Amino acid sequence: MGDTHLYLILSVTLVVILIGCIAVLIRNYMKLIARNDALRESIDNLCKLNDKLRMDRHDYLNHLQIVYGLMELEEYEEMNLYLRKVYKELLKTGKAVKTSKPAINALLAAKSAEAEAKGIEFLIEVKSDLKKLGIEDWELCKVLSNLIDNAVKALEDFEGEVKKLRVNITETADRYIFSVEDNGPKIPESIRENIFKKGFSTRKEEGHGMGLAIVSEILNKSGGDIELSSDDEETVFTVSFEKGE
Q: Are the C-beta atoms of 82 and 98 separated by less than 8 Å?
């Protein structure tokens, strides 16, 4: 009887250990899938950025020929207007490719193109190369991607004549700071504490609510901070991380 009881205890213990091991394996597998999806998206964005740079390079000679032709015809006003358009397009790509992180550069370029296609003016201001970034590039991409996507969704149904979205990347002596700003609708104070909770969404604020739980999860894991300010003029999400060694 004693041996049978001991056998049962050992069997139950073994089953519990096996279940625990399976749970750990499943959790790690899900993390690998999420990381693989993020890496795949980063690679896709890099390919798009590379194609854009190659197209810009190919078009450069054509732009010069057109400008030269307008100059020969003494169409200086038309030449000035043409140069303004070309410069504006080149500036968009140039502003996105300013950090030492190719995945971040590619993400900003891709999101800029998506926003512009929806009639949203996308502004990028980069004042840091992010060389001492402590968080994994692919995780930062997830944070920025969700914040930008939320801002785009908030602006899509916004009735304002001008829709603007700005991404600022700066740094202090010990931290990197990322802010995503939009001039869309104000987020009510009554729901601001809840929008970072998993599963939270309201029909009215769906644009800002989706994806913020993912952002919060990554920040908690990496020691990052997030702040939200929102009024009738603009909504700003500001994320910061400590610099690595």
A: no
